[in-house]
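Supplementary notes (optional reading)

For those who missed the lab, this is the record we used. Protein: Putative flippase GtrA. Length: 149 residues.
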Amino acid sequence: MANHPRSHRSGSLLLTFLTFFLVGTSGTGVHVGLYLLLAVWWSPQGATVASWLISTVATNVVHRRVTFEVASPRRRVLDAVVQFGTSLLGLGASMLMIQAADEWGGMWHVPMLVAGTGVGGVLRFVGMKLWMDRAHPRVQDADCGRHRA
C-alpha cells in the first residue's frame, strides 16, 4: 500500500473533517501565540501576516500528510500552491476582521483573528478536500496490487 498516494483507510468525510479541525485548531493556536508575541513589536496587520505565514506552512504540511493521507511526493509542489491559495481565504477574513476590531479597541484583535480563521477554515476544508480528492484519488484495498496512474 505504500506505493499508493492515498489509502482507503479513513475515507470518511466526518473523520477527515474532524482531523482537519484538530490540525487547524492547533495551527490556530500557533497563529494566535505568534500573533500575541509579534504584536508587541509590530502593527496588528504585520503580526497577523507573519504569524499566519509561519503557522500556515506548518499546518499545510500536516494537513497533506495526516488529514488527507498523502505521503507520495507526487504533485507536492502543486498541492502546496493549492493549499496556500486556500489559506489566503483565511488570511483575508482575518485581516478584514482585525481591521474592524481596530475601531472597537485592541482587546478585540484576538477574538476577531480566531473568528476570521474559523470562517477561512471552513472555506479551506471544502477547497482542499475537493483538490485532494481529485489530485490524489483513494484506492480500494483490493486495488493495492495494481498501480493507478
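If you only remember one thing from this example: Residues 1-6, 141-149 have pLDDT under 50 and may be disordered.
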